[in-house]
Amino acid sequence: MTRVQANLLLLLAGAIWGAGFIAQSTAMDALGPIWFIGLRFAMATVVALPFALWEKARATGPVRRADIGGFVVTGIALFAAAAFQQVGLLTTTVTNSGFLTGLYVVFTPILTVLVLRRLPHWIVWPAAFMACLGIFLLSGGTLAALTVGDFLTIVCALLWSVQMICVGVFGGRSGRPLGLSVVQFAVCAVLGCVAGALFEPISLAAIKGALPEILYAGLFSSGLAFIFQNVAQRYTTAPQAAIFLSSEALFAALFGVLLLGETISPAGYAGCAIIFLAMLAVELVPELLRGRRQGASVEV
């Protein structure tokens, strides 16, 4: 898979997440946020398991114990991020949540430098801030007074960045992105169902009431989209992945217009254009500069 193909796959994951944001927020009309996480990732585990078994059958050797531990850590980071976001939605607006979650495009390159001691391509920094500006404009260009839910969502954005870095490290090192997917989903499912049983009520009627959202989130938002992320990040960097995945805010707005009859302000359209330009910059600038260097070396 080329880097261009990987980034396009991340863009598709962003589109799936953007459409799923509606399901994620409406599910809590019937079901507690932690139970929703547990059930959606239980379904995602079932979706990913056949792919992981197929990958295992084609592998040349077993997964190292250290990598399995990394898979579990990735799952814990994913569960924590999903939990902070889902609980945060109880006390913040969808607009604020969409913008604040998008802060992972800034957190990811910073953590990459601090934790991995890797400097991303210089274009990642302006592109990350462009993406944040675009998401801010897309959200309406304003934020209501910050609530507890807003602060929870900021923590969620930081944890998303941790999860992305873990995917890049352990998925790439092990060569088992599908195995990583099924383990992290299973960890989320177990933690979600155990925590839900301890802290939230549950009933068959509640599950039925949220079943469409659970099916969409389990099959597509959790199952397919995270698998796309895990596969694609073997061929691109975590900072670049964060920028392409931030397109979920753009797609959430577009699906809101198409499915819910919502409107986008002129500032929102400007935000869409800025996000698109940020993704183009990350994709094209490194290639253009590489082509110039190669051309200069040939001339010499």
UniProtKB/TrEMBL annotation:
<feature type="transmembrane region" description="Helical">
    <location>
        <begin position="66"/>
        <end position="85"/>
    </location>
</feature>
<feature type="transmembrane region" description="Helical">
    <location>
        <begin position="151"/>
        <end position="171"/>
    </location>
</feature>
<dbReference type="InterPro" id="IPR051258">
    <property type="entry name" value="Diverse_Substrate_Transporter"/>
</dbReference>
<keyword id="KW-0812">Transmembrane</keyword>
<feature type="transmembrane region" description="Helical">
    <location>
        <begin position="97"/>
        <end position="116"/>
    </location>
</feature>
<dbReference type="Pfam" id="PF00892">
    <property type="entry name" value="EamA"/>
</dbReference>
<dbReference type="InterPro" id="IPR000620">
    <property type="entry name" value="EamA_dom"/>
</dbReference>
<feature type="transmembrane region" description="Helical">
    <location>
        <begin position="241"/>
        <end position="261"/>
    </location>
</feature>
<feature type="domain" description="EamA">
    <location>
        <begin position="148"/>
        <end position="281"/>
    </location>
</feature>
<keyword id="KW-0472">Membrane</keyword>
<dbReference type="InterPro" id="IPR037185">
    <property type="entry name" value="EmrE-like"/>
</dbReference>
<feature type="transmembrane region" description="Helical">
    <location>
        <begin position="214"/>
        <end position="232"/>
    </location>
</feature>
<protein>
    <submittedName>
        <fullName>Drug/metabolite transporter (DMT)-like permease</fullName>
    </submittedName>
</protein>
<dbReference type="GO" id="GO:0005886">
    <property type="term" value="C:plasma membrane"/>
</dbReference>
<feature type="transmembrane region" description="Helical">
    <location>
        <begin position="178"/>
        <end position="199"/>
    </location>
</feature>
<feature type="transmembrane region" description="Helical">
    <location>
        <begin position="267"/>
        <end position="285"/>
    </location>
</feature>
<feature type="domain" description="EamA">
    <location>
        <begin position="7"/>
        <end position="139"/>
    </location>
</feature>
<keyword id="KW-1003">Cell membrane</keyword>
<feature type="transmembrane region" description="Helical">
    <location>
        <begin position="33"/>
        <end position="54"/>
    </location>
</feature>
<feature type="transmembrane region" description="Helical">
    <location>
        <begin position="123"/>
        <end position="145"/>
    </location>
</feature>
<keyword id="KW-1133">Transmembrane helix</keyword>
